[in-house]
């Protein structure tokens, strides 16, 4: 039995029921912690925008941060990003992420954001400390927090919740009986609910049907060759590699493009090594951006590697609303 199966595929409902008392304890402890931390959280001099989720697992937070940072910089705003640096090995914080540095130090997501957004990325498990450091050293107009929905010690001015259209909120139960970090009624307090949609189809039944829900179809950037000099035909046999929260979504999109071959799924934030690719044929390897930042150090072991970047087709109405809201927040923070 896997937790994923119990949470997202309605498997083992009896086990989920048996774990419900633990979920009740989790809810009580979470609520108590939220109330306590909210009372001590102090607003910052610049607005903080949280892009997070209320479930365990990947929902598209990193692509949303990439997209939003680009939109805000196009508006002339200075952007800084704060992150917990999940999976990173650094012991010194705050850490300014070196986009050319070792991804194992800051973590894969933080390194990718530093490389792809060209914004300063500050890693610190203590998010208020990360925000304060970013303000003092980089003087941003706005700060984006990669995750941090449940880090209530950090004041936030706007919240964007990311949801996967196929998995939704699973069985709707709190940890450990379900995938929820917070109750579903938490959605009533957020500013935007954005649903990552890999392919057209009905939304998971747990996703509320309301005007607050924004569909974000996944779109692909150009296939980028990072190792080798030979192009890859669309119908070529390839190795598809993904160590992200929803690897099957990546595989589905790549296969819809016409690529065929063998899919290799790894755990989210997997620490790749050369041994993970032992036994691969000489066929081209296609992987996600987040996985590539951890494999670049031993890239000479490969003959052909391609990165398939993924982003969202954000509706103009949502784009304009977000930009307007954030401009208003920035203006409101400026002392007359």
Number of helices: 9
Q: Give a count of the beta strands, DSSP E runs of length 2 or more.
A: 14
Largest sheet: 9 strands, mixed
Counting structural domains, the number is: 2
How much helicity do the residues have? 25-40%
**What is the overall shape?**
globular
Computed CA radius of gyration, to the nearest angstrom: 20 Å
Alpha-carbon distance between the two ends: 59 Å
Runs with pLDDT <50, length 5+? none
Strand order of the largest sheet: 3-4-2-5-1-6-7-8-14
Which sequence of SSEs, written as H and E, runs from N to C? HHEHEEHHEHEEEEEEHEEHEEH
From the helix content, strand content and strand pairing, which structural class follows?
alpha/beta
Mean pLDDT: 91
Q: Which range does the strand content fall in?
A: 15-25%
Structure, described:
It is a single chain. The mean pLDDT is 91. This protein has helices at 3-8, 13-40, 61-74, 103-106, 108-117, 127-138, 247-256, 289-295, 316-333, and strands at 48-52, 79-83, 95-96, 121-123, 142-146, 158-164, 192-197, 213-220, 224-227, 237-242, 260-265, 285-287, 305-307, 310-312. Helix 3 runs parallel beside helix 5. The chain starts with a helix and ends with a helix. The protein has 336 residues and is α/β, with parallel strands linked by helices. A nine-stranded mixed β-sheet has the order 3-4-2-5-1-6-7-8-14, sandwiched between helices. It is built from nine helices and 14 strands. It folds into two domains: 3-77 and 141-218 and 314-333, no CATH class; 222-308.
């Amino acid at each position: 039995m896997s937790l994923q199966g119990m949470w997202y595929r309605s498997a083992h409902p009896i086990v989920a029921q048996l774990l419900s008392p633990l979920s009740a304890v989790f809810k009580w402890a979470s609520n108590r912690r939220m109330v306590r931390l909210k009372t001590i959280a102090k607003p910052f001099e610049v607005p903080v925008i949280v892009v997070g989720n209320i479930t365990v697992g990947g929902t598209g937070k990193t692509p949303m941060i990439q997209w939003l940072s680009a939109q805000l910089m196009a508006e002339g705003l200075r952007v800084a990003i704060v992150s917990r640096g999940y999976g990173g090995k650094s012991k010194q914080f705050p850490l300014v992420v070196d986009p050319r540095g070792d991804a194992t130090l800051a973590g894969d997501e933080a390194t990718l954001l530093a490389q792809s957004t060209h914004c300063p990325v500050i890693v610190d498990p203590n998010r208020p400390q990360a925000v304060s450091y970013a303000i003092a050293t980089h003087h941003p107009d706005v700060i984006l927090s990669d995750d941090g929905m449940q880090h209530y010690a950090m004041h936030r001015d706007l919240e964007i919740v990311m949801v996967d259209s196929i998995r939704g909120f699973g069985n709707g139960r709190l940890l450990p009986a379900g995938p929820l970090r917070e109750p579903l009624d938490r959605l009533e307090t957020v500013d935007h609910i954005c649903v990552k949609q890999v392919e057209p189809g009905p939304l998971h039944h747990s996703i509320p049907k309301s005007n607050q829900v924004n569909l974000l179809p996944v779109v692909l950037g150009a296939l980028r060759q990072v190792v080798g000099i030979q192009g890859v035909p669309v119908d070529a046999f390839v190795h598809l590699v993904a160590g992200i929260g929803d690897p099957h979504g990546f595989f589905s999109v790549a296969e819809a493009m016409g690529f065929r071959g063998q899919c290799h799924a790894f755990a989210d934030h997997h620490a790749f090594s050369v041994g993970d690719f032992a036994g691969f044929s000489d066929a081209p390897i296609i992987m996600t951006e987040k996985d590539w930042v951890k494999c670049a150090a031993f890239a000479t072991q490969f003959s052909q590697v391609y990165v398939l970047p993924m982003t969202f087709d954000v509706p103009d109405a949502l784009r304009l609303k977000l930009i307007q809201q954030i401009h208003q927040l920035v203006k409101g923070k400026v002392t007359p």
